[in-house]
From TrEMBL:
Residues 47-106, 175-254 form the Peptidase S54 rhomboid domain. It is a multi-pass membrane protein. It is found in: Membrane. GO terms for cellular component: membrane. It comes from Mongoliitalea lutea. The chain crosses the membrane at residues 12-39, 59-76, 85-103, 184-205, 212-229, 235-255. Belongs to the peptidase S54 family. Keywords: Hydrolase, Membrane, Protease, Transmembrane, Transmembrane helix. This is Rhomboid family intramembrane serine protease. It comes from the Bacteria.
Length: 263
């Protein structure tokens, strides 16, 4: 099975798995340095747009991404050539990081606007709305605080505590890291679906055959749904997945128009 691995796919697998074990067992600080942070975070460094895609949150995260590369990568490399497969992987990975950073900046701007609105009019209602939208970042005791604030809406001390709580939540949100090669993998997935749409794939769950184009369509729709739904308790960067799909589709479309450059 492993004999069928193509050179770029094999090297990407080896490098990513090696980095995972080094960061998990020898140098845990690698993840803190190499993960992708909000561009205005004190932890952000420009090289993170590349390094984040070689780091993973846990073993299952690593396994699922590398399994996808293992399944779809070799045939793509044989068809596109090693340079284009590597370009696809890196461009989709880095591009996903860039687009996700833009998305994060938009969300942080919305957060800042809510905080500014509260500072201009510090009412319990505004604070309660803020907590509802960001409840996953608050401690459980915040609801007791809301009750107290509602009963004493003119308290300067409670207004100040509310401001401090909101500032803490903003700092938490600004320093949530993103890791993983999912954006790159989704680029590979869309490329496979576009270039080999009628290839039959056999799913494990449920155990049934499905054409590649339908599998990609389901993944795409599911990703769009999660981006729109925006569940605050979901720690998966669905927008990065969607970005990988879009960038991968653009690359393949461009390469199709330049068929003489395939090698």
């Amino acid at each position: 099975m492993f004999r069928n691995l193509t050179p770029v796919v094999k090297n990407l697998l080896l490098i990513t798995v090696l980095i995972y074990f080094v960061s998990a067992m020898i140098m845990p600080q690698l993840k803190a340095i190499g993960a992708l942070y909000y561009i205005h975070s004190s932890k952000f460094l420009p090289f993170q747009f590349l390094t984040y895609m070689f780091l993973h949150a846990d073993g299952w995260h690593l396994f699922s991404n590398m399994l996808g590369l293992f399944i779809f990568g070799p045939l793509l490399e044989q068809y596109l050539g090693p340079k284009k497969l590597l370009t696809l992987w890196l461009v989709c990975g880095v591009g996903s990081g860039l687009l996700y950073s833009g998305y994060t900046a938009y969300r942080m701007n919305s957060l800042d606007q809510e905080i500014a609105a509260f500072n201009n009019d510090p009412t319990p209602e505004r604070f309660n709305d803020f907590v509802k939208e960001n409840r996953h970042l608050f401690r459980t005791g915040v609801f007791d605080f809301i009750d107290n604030f509602s009963r004493n809406p003119e308290s300067k001390e409670l207004k100040q505590r509310a401001r401090e709580n909101m500032s803490q939540v903003r700092n938490i949100q600004a320093n949530i890291p993103m890791v993983g090669a999912s954006g790159a993998l989704f680029g590979v997935l869309i490329a496979f679906g576009m270039l080999f749409p009628n290839t039959q794939l056999f799913l494990l769950f449920p155990p049934m055959p499905v054409k590649a184009k339908y599998l990609v369509l389901v993944y795409g729709l599911y990703t769009v749904y999660n981006v729109i739904n925006n569940n605050p308790l979901d720690n998966v960067a669905h927008f990065a997945h969607l970005s990988g799909l879009v960038i991968g589709a653009i690359l393949v479309t461009y390469w199709r128009k330049k068929r003489d450059s395939f090698y």
